[in-house]
Amino acid sequence: MNRYRFYVGLLDRAGTPADHTGAHTHLAAHFGGYLALEGNGAWQPSDGPVLYEPSMVYECIADGPHPAASYAADLAQLCNQTCVLWTAERIEGGFANA
């Protein structure tokens, strides 16, 4: 199994609330589901002070490999972002039934 995370700003390039409707549709179509977590992130550009940004972290689990970099570029376009950070890692997991 693989876990993919996509870190997408909640504000778009203009500083207004980003529309994440397309992101939800895109990830559901490619992964069959996802977990969306809102949080506050911080990062420091090479030429300035630390910036704080409200963000959405999408976590997706898949049995096989997925083109995460391509999906991140899609999310950047769908949510009007300059960029979207993505991570991928191999995990173990499964479902437990009651």
Largest sheet descriptor: 4 strands, antiparallel
Work out the radius of gyration.
14 Å
- Give the topology string: H per helix, E per strand: EHEEHE
Shape category: globular
Give, in spatial order, the strands making up the sheet with the most strands: 2-3-1-4
Q: What structural class is derived from the secondary structure elements?
A: alpha+beta
Overall mean confidence score, pLDDT = 95
Describe this structure in words.
The protein has 98 residues and is of the alpha+beta class. The model has no long low-confidence stretch (mean pLDDT 95). 22% of the residues lie in helices and 36% in strands. α1 (21-31) runs antiparallel to α2. It is globular, with a radius of gyration of 14 Å. It has one domain (2-84). β2 and β3 form a beta hairpin. The longest helix has 11 residues, at 21-31. A four-stranded antiparallel sheet has the order 2-3-1-4, with helices on one face.
Brief characterization of the structure:
By secondary structure, the chain is an alpha+beta fold.
Q: How do the strands and helices of this protein lay out in sequence?
A:
Elements (H helix, E strand, L loop, with lengths): L1 E8 L11 H11 L3 E9 L7 E12 L5 H11 L6 E6 L8
Antiparallel strand pairs: 1-3, 1-4, 2-3
Helix pairs in contact: 1-2
